[in-house]
Structures are given as C-alpha cells and as structure tokens.
Amino acid sequence: MWRRLRYDDSTAALALLSAERGRGLAADEATLGKQDEVLLGEDGGEGGAEGEVVGRTYWWQDKYRPRKPRYFNRVKTGWDWNMYNRTHYDHDNPPPKTVQGYKFNVFYPDLIDKTKAPTFFMERCDNPEFTIIRFHAGPPYEDVAFKILNKEWEKSHKRGFKCLFERGILSLYFNFKRARYRR
C-alpha cells in the first residue's frame, strides 16, 4: 500500500529552507530537485505509483502525521583536466562538465526523539553506475532517497567531507575521488 507523500510545512522547516536557499549556489553547483527523488514504499524499497491511506483524524494529527522532510541539495560539477582532456581541450573550448560531488541538507526541525541523529544508507540500484542514498530520521518523518553516481568518496575533512546533524539540519557533503591516469 502506498501513501500520499507530504512535505513538512512547519514554520521552522520553511525558515531553515529559506535560509539555505538564500545562500545561493556557487558557480560550480546545481540543484537536485523532485525529478531526482526516488519514491519509497512502506517496506523501504523503491516504489512506483502513489496511493492514499484513509483513517481517523485526531487533534494532534497535524504535528505527528508522517511527512517527508524538506531538503535543499546541490550537485558539484566541474571540468576534469586529466591528460586526455589537456591534450584535446583548452580553456576556450573546455571538456564536458562532470559531477565531482554532492551537498545534501535535509531539515528535521520536529523530530520526536531528539537524542537519535538521522542517518543515511546506501542501497543498490538497477544501473551499476548509480546508487541510492536514503536518509532516515524516525517519526514523524518518512525516508527520502536520491539516485546519485556510484563512485568512491573522499572521506577526508580536508577534501570537503562533512556529515553533521546540528540545529535540526542533517548536512552531508562529499566529493568523489579523482582517478589518476598513468601511462
């Protein structure tokens, strides 16, 4: 059975979202939107169509109803100046841009159990070039998932890795390892 997906419309979530959007995008970033989101079923697997659950209404239902968290995600893109691209391209005619990393900001202002930090899981996808990253926080939030490139991450803080849950925002920033080409 599928549930209709609802987003968190609380004032705290909207304030966090507008503050993050106000920062804007850097020159090497793009946004991940609804077209990149993966629908999840009740069992946590990938889903297809949406349905609706019919039930009773309670006075506390709005605050504790299951809903999807707000998110503001970015894709870091840039040029890979490897030996092949240096030979065949120049700065006037650059090579195609490639995805170099991601920045995920998922907003959880109304968590019921504030002692447990939200987590993320990596899941396999049909296409081996991609993987699904699923964010799980607990009630009242449903899981949200995105399809990203399946490459190895740079897990060094100096290389831009950040995984932090602070003031109701789960921030996960990572860049991909660069492939070094040798003769």
Automatic annotation (TrEMBL):
Q: Which GO terms describe its biological process?
A: mRNA cis splicing, via spliceosome
Q: Which InterPro entries match?
A: Cactin_C (IPR019134)
Domain Splicing factor Cactin C-terminal stretches: 60-183
Please give the GO cellular component terms listed in this UniProt entry. Answer: cytoplasm; spliceosomal complex
Which domain of life, per UniProt?
Eukaryota
Q: Which PANTHER family match?
A: POLYGLUTAMINE BINDING PROTEIN 1/MARVEL MEMBRANE-ASSOCIATING DOMAIN CONTAINING 3 (PTHR21737), SPLICING FACTOR CACTIN (PTHR21737:SF4)
Q: What is this protein called?
A: Splicing factor Cactin C-terminal domain-containing protein
Q: Lineage in the entry?
A: Eukaryota, Sar, Stramenopiles, Ochrophyta, Eustigmatophyceae
